[in-house]
Amino acid sequence: MLAHQLAVENPLVQAEMVEAMEFPDLADRHNVSGVPQTTINDGANHVVGAVPEDHLLAEIQKILN
Amino acid sequence: MTNPLLNDEVAGQVKDVFSNQLKHPVEILFFGSKDNCEMCDETHKLLGEVTALSDKLHLTVYDLDENKSLASQYHVSMAPTIVVAGREGDQVTDYGVRFAGIPSGYEFSSLIQGLILVSGRDSGLAPATRQALKELKKPVLLQVFVTPT
Asked: pLDDT (tens digit, 9 = 90+) per residue, B57-108?
C-alpha cells in the first residue's frame, strides 16, 4: 500500500489502513463514501481512490504549505 | 480445536512468498481490547497463523487498556490495531505502519505486503518521491479507509 511506503520512507509519516465497517464513527466523521479513501491529518485533506505516488504526495504538500 | 482461518493452500502460498521475500526480522504488535471489540479475537488468531509461517516474524500481544503507555507510544487508540515494526535483536523500530481492524479478504494481501515492506526496510518509492519527502517538516497521518470484500 502506497501510504505504508511513504511511512517507511520518512519517520514523520504514519500510515494506517482502517477497516471502515469496524470503525463506522471514524468513517462517518471523515465522510467516507468511496474506498479506498485516504484522509490526511485528521481531515485536513483527503484523496478518493487509488492514486499514483506523485498525486498523493501533491495532496500532502498542499496542506503543509 | 477450532478450524484455522487460513486454509492449507493459502498458508502454503504465503509461506512460499515469505521465504522468498522476507529479508529482516519483523515485530508485529497486536493491540486488542476486552471491551466491545468484535474482531479482536479473530484478528489475533489470524496474526498467530501468519506469524507461524516464517521465523522472521515475531508477534507480541497487548491490551489497549492494560498497556496504555505502550499504546500511546505507538499512537494506537483503536482495537484491534496491528503495528508492523522492524526488529533487530531486542530493538524494535517503528516504521509508522499500522492496520486498524482485521486485514481479511482483499486486505489480507495488504497485510502480507506490509510485512514484506517493513522486512525490506526500504520504501521502494520513486527517487523523486523520496527526495520530496525529505522536505517534510511536520508529522503526517495518513488514514486509508477500506472495506472488506
From this structure: 999 999 999 999 999 999 999 999 999 999 999 999 999 999 999 999 889 9
Instruction: List domains and CATH numbers for chain B.
Output: 8-134 (3.40.30.10)
Residue partners of A12: CB distance under 8 A and separation at least 6: B136, B137, B138, B139, B140
Q: Between chains, do B122 and A42 touch, taking CB under 8 Å as contact?
A: no
pLDDT in tens, A16-60: 999 999 999 999 999 998 899 999 999 999 999 999 999 999 999
Q: In sequence order, what E strands does B67-125 have?
A: 81-88, 91-100
Provide, as residue numbers in chain A, all residues whose Cβ is less than 8 Å from the Cβ of B122.
Answer: 8
* Residue A16 to residue B37: CA distance in whole angstroms: 18
All three cell numbers of B20, joined, read 522468498
Quick one: cell of B46?
489470524
Is residue B42 helix, strand or coil? helix
Nearest alpha-carbon partner for A4 in B14, B88, B108, B84? B84
A-chain residues near B145 (CB < 8 A): 18, 20, 27, 30, 32, 35-39
